[in-house]
Amino acid sequence: AGTLHVVATPIGNLGDLSPRALEVLRAVDAICAEDTRHTRRLLAHFGIERPLLAVHEHNEGDIASKLVARLLAGESLALVSDAGTPLVSDPGFRFVRAAREAGIKVSPVPGPCAFVAALSVAGLASDRFVFEGFLPAKASARRERLASLAGESRTLVFYESSHRIEEALADCVAAFGSERPGVLARELTKLFETVLDGTLGEIRSAVEADENQRKGEFVLLVQGAGEDEDAKVAEGRRLYARLCEYLK
Ligand code: SAM
User: Fold this and answer.
1) Mean pLDDT rounded to a whole number for the chain
2) Which of 17, 185, 215, 237 can bridge 219 by disulfide, Cβ–Cβ 3.0-4.6 Å?
3) Which residues line ligand 1 (CB under 6 A)?
4) CB 96 within 8 A of CB 106
5) Per-residue pLDDT tens over the stretch 84-111
């Protein structure tokens, strides 16, 4: 049987595609990509011509068994997403699971990942952290998620897009308090890379004051609640929020 290579691609700077990623992408029979047009541009930049197969969240469940059949027949495949590490807030886990269940070797080609990059420059405690990915789009669900995290003592890590960054910051201030320290990492490895640090209140003001700070892609990191007082205050805040919901 062939191997399924799970290949990380750049989160902005094309120089971050590793030599081994290039080697694997050149060698496989086909490349499974979240968005084939997007990946075709990346491959064209490196002069790689390999057949592309669309594997995204809408067809992954249906197509996984066909892809596994190709792997079992001896083909080797690569899985990439639009940016960074596949499966990290990206499609792929169903395909990987199906391949593993069929006894296929699944091998990583590690590389860029936005939250790891952000954590590596944030200067927040990084021995223990919680990756929360994208917050729910609906305001009520988002607030509930944040309220449930208010007493969390590990560093919190969120993904956010430009559409919702202001709402997300406002909701974080409400859930964690404006004095809680945080870091907002924007456009990492790209031309307008910015890493803002300060209290959540300060970060929110900075983003509100400058529309350029609302553009692009974001990783928001929030320091965990202090083990003693912070956690109690957070728990009080959480209960208060629940009570307000209840009384509505
Ligand atoms: N698989 C990717 C990874 O390994 O990080 C994440 C894919 S997810 C669909 C896209 C989100 O990742 C963006 O909305 C943003 O929160 C974050 N992201 C991706 N590239 C980024 C960058 N260059 N700077 C900051 N955040 C980024």
Assistant:
1) 95
2) 185
3) 11-12, 81, 83-85, 88-90, 113-115, 159-161, 185-190, 217-219
4) yes
5) 999 999 999 999 999 999 999 999 999 9
**In testing the pocket of ligand 1, which one of 17, 35, 109, 217 has its CB within 8 Å of the most ligand atoms?**
217
User: What is the average pLDDT across 212-218?
Assistant: 94
- Token pair, residue 17, equals 């595609």
Nearest atom of ligand 1 to the alpha carbon of 158: 16
DSSP string, the chain: --EEEEE-B-SS-GGGS-HHHHHHHHHSSEEEESSHHHHHHHHHHTT----EEE--TTTHHHHHHHHHHHHHTT--EEEE-SSBSTTSSSS-HHHHHHHHHTT-EEEEE----HHHHHHHHH-S--SSEEEEEEPPSSHHHHHHHHHHHTT--SEEEEEEETTTHHHHHHHHHHHH-TTSEEEEEESTTSTT-EEEEEEHHHHHHHHHH-GGGGSSEEEEEEPPPPTTHHHHHHHHHHHHHHHHHHH-
Q: What's the whole-model pTM score?
A: 0.92
Query: What is the rounded radius of gyration, in angstroms, for the C-alpha atoms of the chain?
Result: 20
Give pLDDT, residue 246.
84
* Mean of pLDDT values over 67-90: 98
> ipTM of the assembly?
0.99
